[in-house]
Amino acid sequence: MAAALIRGAGLERYYQEREVLAPRSRYLEAGWNTVPTETDSSGIAETRLMVDGLRCASCVWVTEHVLQSTPGVAEATISYATGRCILRWDPEQVDLAELAGRIATLGYRPRLLGEETTVDRDLLLRLGVAAFAAVNIMMMSAALYLGWWSSMDPRFVVLFQWTSLILATPVALWCAAPFFSGAVSGLRNGVLHMDLPIALGVAVLYGQGIVATINREHAYVDSLAMLVALLLAGRMLESRGRRRAAEAAVSLAASVPATARRSTGEGVETVPADQLRPGDLIDVGTGEEVAADGVVVTGSGRVRMAHITGEAEPVEIHPDQEIVAGSVLLDGAMTIRVSAVGGDTVLHQMAEQLRMAADRGSRPTSADRIAPWFTAGTLVVAAVTFVAWALHTGLGAAVPRAVAVLVVACPCALALSRPLAAAAGLGASARRGLLFRSADALLDLVDVNIVALDKTGTVTQGALTVLEAEDEALRVAAGLERYSNHPIAAAIVDEAGNRGIPLPRGSHITEEPGVGISGVVDGRSWRLRPGGPGQVLLLDDAGRERIIALGDVVRSDSARTIAALRQGGLQVALLTGDHQDIADRIGQETGVRTVVARIDPVGKALWIRARRERGHRVLFAGDGINDGPGLAEADVGVAMGSGAASSVLIADGVISSGSLAPIPVALHAAHECRRAIRLNQARSIGYNILAVGAAAAGYVNPLVAAVLMPLSSAMVMWGASRVEVNVRELSL
Amino acid sequence: MNAVLFLLPIAVFLGAVFLVLFVVAARSGQFDDLDDPPERILKD
Questions:
Q1: How high is the ipTM of this complex?
Q2: Which domain, by its residues, includes B18?
Q3: What's the pTM value of the predicted model, to 2 decimals?
Q4: Using the beta-carbon criterion (under 8 Å), do A156 and B27 form an inter-chain contact?
Q5: Can you spell out the DSSP letters for A332-357?
Q6: Is residue B23 part of a domain?
Q7: For a Cys staple, A338 with which of A161, A294, A308, A391, CB 3.0–4.6 Å?
Q8: B22 domain residue, yes or no
Q9: pLDDT of A365-395, one tens digit each?
Q10: Is residue B42 part of a domain?
C-alpha cells in the first residue's frame, strides 16, 4: 500500500533521478581522485573524509557496511560523533570518486576535510519551508474544523483544501526527502531504519491528502506539514548540539598565533604564520606564543608547554634546544630557526593522530531499536483493520479506516523522544560546565560506577599557589613581582590580593631570568630568589631570609565534589604518577580512599581496563597528555578544558570551568535524560496504542486526529523540558 | 466572504515573500553561527 502511495505521489521519479544524480562522475569531476592520499608499502591508500547527513547509529552502520562490501576496500570506519570517515582501499580495484559516489547513493554527503559544511544550512532551509507551510496550512485547517461543525460554503472548502495541498507538496517532496533517503537506504541494506515509519507516514498522509482533496473529503495535510516541521526541528537541535560540543572542544585546545616576527637581513617584519618557511629566523619575546616548531639560535628563557605535556611547570630552554609551536615564552627573548610550520608541527600532528584515535574509538549504540517493531506493528494493525472491515462491511469502509490507522500511528512523538531529551540533557550539562560530544557519551554516564581522577590539574589546580608566607613578606614580594609575568609572580600577587594586602609600588626593579628579581620597596632594597624545592626566599638589605612556600593545591571544591560522588554510591579513585606520600596527602584532603600512586600513563589505562573487565563502568577525568590512554580506555573520558590539547581532543566530554563540580551535575543530567527518553518512549507508545485502537475501530475523525497528533508531540516536548527543570532542582 | 478569495492568495504570497527572504539569508550563511559574532567584539 505504501508503495502504491509512493507511486501515486509521483515519488518514484524522485528515486530514479536521485540514482542518476549521484554517480561517480560527479566526484570525478570535482577532482576527488587527485586528493592526496597516503599509500603504505602494500599499496593500500588511506584518506579521511567527512560524511554529512548521518542521523543515527544505523546510518553509520549502513554506510560502513556498504563501503566494506565494495571490492577493493580494506577498511571503512565512520565516527557518528564527528562524521569523520577513515577509508583504506586498493587503488588498483576502486577509486575514491567511486567510493564517494557510493556514499552519496545512500543519501549521505561525502565531503573533503577542510571543505566548508552546509549540512546545517540544508536542514535549516528544509525546516524553514516546512514551518512556513505548516503555519499557513494550520490557519486554513482551523477554518475548516470550525466549518466542519457549522456549515461552510463548499467553494471555500475547496479553495482551502487545494491551497493546503499545494503548500504541503514541497513539504512532502522536498522537506521530507532526508527521511525518504534514510528509509530507502535502510531497506536496500535490510535494516528497518527509524526513518522508515516517518517516510511511510509522510507518504500515506500526502497520498491520502491528494485522494481526499479530489474527492472533497477531509485531508490530513496539516498533520503532514506539522509532522515534518517538528521532526526537522528535532534533527536540527541534535545536529547543532553535536557540532557545538565538537567545536567547543577544538577551540579550547591550544592555538598557534596567527602572525610571527621574521628577521630579514636588515630588520624584522611581521608576517602571517602560514607564510613562514623552514629555515626562517623568527623572534619571540616575553609573553608570546611560538608560531612554529624550531631550534633556538640565540637567547634563552622559561617556556610553558602545557598544551603538549599537560605540565604547568615551565621548562628552561637554551640555544640549540628544540621548541614547539604553541609554547609560551614566559620570560626572556629568543630567536628561533623554524624547522616545521603549519601541518608539519608537532602540535598539529599530535592533534591529527589523537583525532584519528578518537574517531576509531567511537562506538555506535543502537538508538532506534524500537523503530522496526513500531513499523512492523503499524503495518500489521493496518492490514488486520483493512481485512476485518473489508469482510465485515466492504471495501468502502475498509480503505479510510486502514489509512486512518497509518495516519494516527504517527511516529512523530517516538522519533522526537530521543533527540529532544538528548538535546535537553546535553544543554543542561553544558550550561553547568561539562560539554559532551554526543548524546551517547552523556547517556553512558548513567552506568558509571567508578570515577577515576587524575591528580595534577584535575583534583588539584595544576598551577603554583602560595602555600605559606607571612603577610609582610608576601606584601614586599608582591611589590617586586607585580611587574613580572613569571608563574611564581602570578601566584604571589594573586595570594596578596586574596589576603586583601594592598600592593606597594616597587622601584629600581631588575629581573634576571633564572636568578631572581630585585628592587626597592618602602625605601629598602630587597631580593627575591629561588630557594629549595617549592620555595622562594625574600632577602632584605641586612641579609635576613623569609621563606615563601609554593605548591600545587587542591581545587577548592574538589573535596565537596568527591563527597557528592561518593554519596551517589560511586567509588572514587585517585590515579597519579606522583609519590605515594603526596598522593596520600591529597587523598586524605579530598576524602578519596582508593589512591594509586607512581603509576605511568599506560598503567592508568590498564587500571581502568582491569576494572572494566570486571564489569564496572569507569569515568576517567584527566588533563594532561599523559592521561590520553586513560581517557581513551575509560567508558567516559572527561578532559579539563584548561589541560593539554591532546586530552581535550580524545575525551568524550570537556569541562569548561576549572572545577570538578560539573561531573556530579552531569551525572544527574544523564539520569534525567535517560529517564525522559524512556518516559517519552512509553508515552508515545501509549498514545499510539490508544490512537491506533480508536482508528482501527473507526472512531477517528479529522478533528480527533487534529487534536491527538499535536498533543502527542507536545507531550514529548514537555517531557524533554523536564530534564532541565529536574537538573536545576537537583543541583541546588 | 468573497474577500477571502483574493485575501487568501495575498496572505500566502506575503508569507512566501518572507520565506524567500529567509532562504536568501540562510543561503548567505546568516544562521550558520548564532553565538560567536556578538562576542567577537569582546575578543582582542
A1: 0.88
A2: 3-30
A3: 0.60
A4: no
A5: EEEEEEEEE-GGGSHHHHHHHHHHHH
A6: yes
A7: A294
A8: yes
A9: 334 566 667 777 878 888 898 899 888 887 7
A10: no
